Amino acid sequence: MKKYKGIIIFCLLTFVLILSAAAKPRISIYINGVRALPGDPISANPVITVAVTTSDASVTGRITVDNTTTPLTFVGSANNFYATLEVTTALADGLHGLTVEAFGPAGTGSGATSEVVPLFVQTKQDLIVQGTPLCYPNPFDPGIPGGTVTIAYMLSKAAGVTLSIHDLTGAVISKMAFGAGSSGGRAGYNAVSWNGQSDAGSVAGNGIYILLIIGDGKVLAKGKLTVLKR
Fold first, then answer.
1. Do 141 and 56 have their domain in common?
2. Exposed e or buried b for every residue in 120-146, given b needs 16+ CB within 10 A?
3. What is the CATH number of the domain that holds 221?
4. What φ, ψ does residue 224 adopt, rounded to 5°?
5. Taking a C-beta distance cutoff of 8 angstroms, is the pair 217, 125 a contact?
6. pLDDT band at 222 (very low <50, low <70, confident <90, very high)
7. 3-state class of 19 per DSSP?
8. How many domains does the chain have?
9. Contact 72/29 with Cβ under 8 angstroms?
């Protein structure tokens, strides 16, 4: 029996640790509606949303942006809770970070911490598209219900942006304009869709199309789209 005693104790401790880990709240952080990731560019006045999934009946917590800590007021039910902080004092250009802590009722019970560092504010720098724009699915079929292509790109700062789609002769097929700070013109990740229709209302024919992302009076990035109707 002695030789099994150590195994039983080890299994019990492992089970307790698993239960303890499972009880920790799960924290997700969004900036201006987009999941925040280290290295993201953000606006100087971001709106930060914190989502917490937990087995606790209620949640308390706080958020620290750089060196400023603010209590969070969560709403929600069914183990899903949300809190929002709007940063009203503009963040300076440069590197920033945020930390979220979430706890059970009245600061008791299980707790968890989530950190997103670094984040960059770049309002005084030239507008750029970071990385290569992604288009998916590509090719796509605009002739079927829901046949759209998603165009995703990262902006270094909030700015007015135009997406211009051309055929291989250079003729403009469609233009889409997005205001600074709106979906399509926000600092960080943007994802917009095109239904394959020209500005005149006709469906684009099979072929390759050139995507231009234009801002601050210049072409910031290029991409290719392929229309393939079945």
1. no
2. bbbbeeebbbbeebebeeeebbbeeee
3. 2.60.40.4070
4. -125, 140
5. no
6. very high
7. helix
8. 2
9. no
d(CA 42, CA 119) in angstroms, rounded, equals 7
Q: Does residue 109 belong to any structural domain of this protein?
A: yes
Which residues have a Cβ under 8 Å from the Cβ of 3 and sit 6 or more positions away?
none
Residues 201 and 220 in one domain: yes
- Whether residue 41 sits in one domain with residue 76: yes
The domain that holds 46 is classified in CATH as: 2.60.40.10
CA atoms in the 13 A half-sphere facing the CB of 70: 15
pLDDT reported for residue 58: 86
List, for residues 15-45, the tens digit of each pLDDT value. Answer: 334 444 446 889 999 999 999 999 999 999 9
Band of pLDDT at residue 109, cut at 50, 70 and 90: low
- Average pLDDT for the chain: 89
Report the C-alpha gap between 31 and 90 in whole angstroms.
15
Per-residue model confidence as pLDDT tens digits over 135-145: 999 999 998 99
User: Domain residues for 81?
Assistant: 25-121
Q: Does residue 3 surpass a pLDDT of 60?
A: no
* Cα–Cα distance, 165 to 139 (Å, whole number): 15
The whole-number average pLDDT for the span 192-217 is: 96
- Tokens in use for 183? 């979906």
Give a yes or no: residue 198 inside a domain: yes
Rg (CA), the chain: 24
- Residue 15: half-sphere exposure toward Cβ, Cα within 13 Å: 6
